Amino acid sequence: MASRESWATRIGFIIAAVGSAVGLGNIWRFPFLTGEAGGAAFLVVYLGLVAVVGLPVLLAELVIGRRSKRNPIGAFDALGKPAWKFIGGLGALAGLIILSYYSVVGGWVIQYIIGSLTGGYVADSEAFFLDVAMGWDTVAFDFVFMAIVAGIVALGIRNGLERAAKVMVPSVIVLLVVLAAYGATLDGASAAYSYYLSPDMEYLTGNFFSILPDAAGQAFFTLSLGMGVMITYASYLGEDRSLLKDSGYIVVIDTAIAFLAGLVVFPFLFTQGIEPGSGGAGAVFISLAAAFAELPAGNLIGAVFFIMLGIAALTSAFSILEVVVSFVIDSTDIERTPATIVIAASIFVIGIPTALDLTYLDLYDKFANNILLILGGMLLSIFVGLVYADGAKAELSEGSPLGASIAPIWVLVSAVVVPVVLAITLYFGVVEYIEFLRESFL
Ligand code: PFF
Fold first, then answer.
1. How far is the CA of 57 from the centre of ligand 1 (A)?
2. 20 touches ligand 1 (CB under 6 Å)
3. Helix and strand tally (H, E) in the chain?
4. Ligand 1, from 18, 20, 259: best to mutate by most atoms within 8 Å of Cβ?
5. For ligand 1, atom 10: residue with the closest CA
6. Which of 61, 85, 283, 328 could form a disulfide with 76 if both were Cys (CB 3.0 to 4.6 A apart)?
7. What is the predicted pLDDT for the residue at 32?
8. d(CA 199, CA 138)
9. ∠ CA(96), CA(343), CA(110), 5° rounding?
10. Mean of the pLDDT values across residues 289-314?
């Protein structure tokens, strides 16, 4: 077994973790789910879940990773609880499924970069989207995206990616702020803000349980939780850092970027007269492309925007592949490069249906997020709350006096609140998924 690498710089961990968290989840998935589920009502449930469930589970992953210094499957052996290893396996399965379609959407982004430069979406942004999102071209660009991700993973954790993420996160924030400011000047802005920001309480209470699974799945997806990414990243971490502080950075930056994306997308949608939710997975791409088409120097702004989105997607996709590859190289004699090639090729093949038909994309997406990630998060939480509580408390206290004082509350929340909330969520998630299967395939 090769000796374990560690982060090249102190800030390396936080940059990579934020790089993993910030991605298509914030800018593509969050706005379209919000649009489908009634706007502000979704936002409220999502924000609540990030705080009540997302943050404790993020801490659980960081604690498990740093304490064990292992990949998500080996971690449970190292902590003396081998029976819990299957959580790591569950996470790896979720990772395979998520990356298989994540790279498809990554391929869309590449096509949008090209489309910005060539003016491809100027005439009809809706037709352009449908062209981009399904078919053998889509498969080809999925392949290109996957090949780039595999190339980066094959080079190892220290190379290239930290630098890319360092530029990407501030650039994404600046671009979104500029676009949100422009959006504020549009005719549809005030209707958009009331849709996005002022929750209709009657709608919220009436639809709470149908919003819950999507909002919880999104909270996990956007924070890169439930798949062992954060376990893996924290396994390379020294004892001197405060996990509490680091988790705070990750949650705040990630949530702020998603929120900003909503402030950009909804004014554009309302101004163009597109019903929020009607565009489904295409909402963001269609509305932004139409907006760029009208802007002065829009092709340039569009290209810059989609390049940033592409980098954001790469740093996230990288983290998923890295988990699976690090597991294989830690536990077998296989070298990094061949392991990467075989795993990436398999994931590509698994994802082909989602590049040919958006229904499959939904099928994979809902299953991985609303079921597997929720289940994984619930089990992780039970693990730190009930099975490994003393070790977990000790690890959170390491390098952080504040962590030490929060630790008992965190363990209690992990033992009781998180599992109860996620069990309810999982129930509704499964019921809804069965309904979705029936509607789509019967
Ligand atoms: N958090 C990423 C995003 O919001 O785009 C997606 C993601 C990355 C999900 C890594 C899961 C994961 F393990």
1. 14
2. yes
3. 22, 0
4. 20
5. 224
6. 85
7. 92
8. 37
9. 75
10. 89
- The CATH number of 12-441 is 1.20.1740.10
pLDDT at residue 281, rounded to an integer? 85
Residue 1's pLDDT band, with cuts at 50, 70 and 90, is very low
Domain boundaries, the chain: 12-441
Residue 401 CB burial class (10 angstroms; 0-12, 13-18, ≥19): exposed
pLDDT at 145 over 50: yes
Beta carbon of 312 within 6 Å of any ligand 1 atom: no
Confirm or reject: Cβ of 25 under 6 Å from ligand 1: yes
The predicted-structure confidence for 205-258, as pLDDT tens digits, reads as follows: 999 999 999 999 999 999 999 999 999 899 888 778 899 999 999 999 999 999
Radius of gyration over every alpha carbon of the chain, rounded to an integer in angstroms = 21
Distance CA 319, CA 367 (A): 20
5-17 pLDDT, tens digit per residue, is: 666 666 788 888 9
- Residue 25 CA to ligand 1 centre (angstroms): 6
The closest of 266, 302, 288, 308 to 125, measured between CA atoms, is 288
- This prediction has a pTM of 0.94
Residue type, 252: V
Name the residue of 30, 50, 98, 365 whose CB sits within 8 Å of the most ligand 1 atoms, as the mutation to test its pocket. Answer: 98
Residue 5: predicted pLDDT: 62
Q: Which of 255, 320, 365 to mutate to test the pocket of ligand 1 (most atoms within 8 A of CB)?
A: 320
- CA 273 to ligand 1 center in whole angstroms: 31
**CA–CA separation, 425 vs 380, rounded Å?**
15
Among 421, 371, 319, 286, CA closest to 102: 319
Q: How confident is the model at residue 296 (pLDDT cuts 50, 70, 90)?
A: confident
Please tell me the distance between residue 105's alpha carbon and the centre of ligand 1 in angstroms: 13
Residue 96 CB less than 6 A away from ligand 1: no
Q: DSSP string of 28-57? A: IIHHHHHHHTTTHHHHHHHHHHIIIIIHHH
For residues 396 and 59, the answer to whether their CB atoms sit within 8 Å is yes
Q: Is the CB of 224 under 6 A from ligand 1?
A: yes
Nearest Cα neighbor of 429 from 265, 226, 146 is 226
CB of 221 shorter than 6 A to ligand 1:
yes
**Ligand 1 atom 11, closest CA:** 224
103 vs 99: CA distance, rounded Å: 6
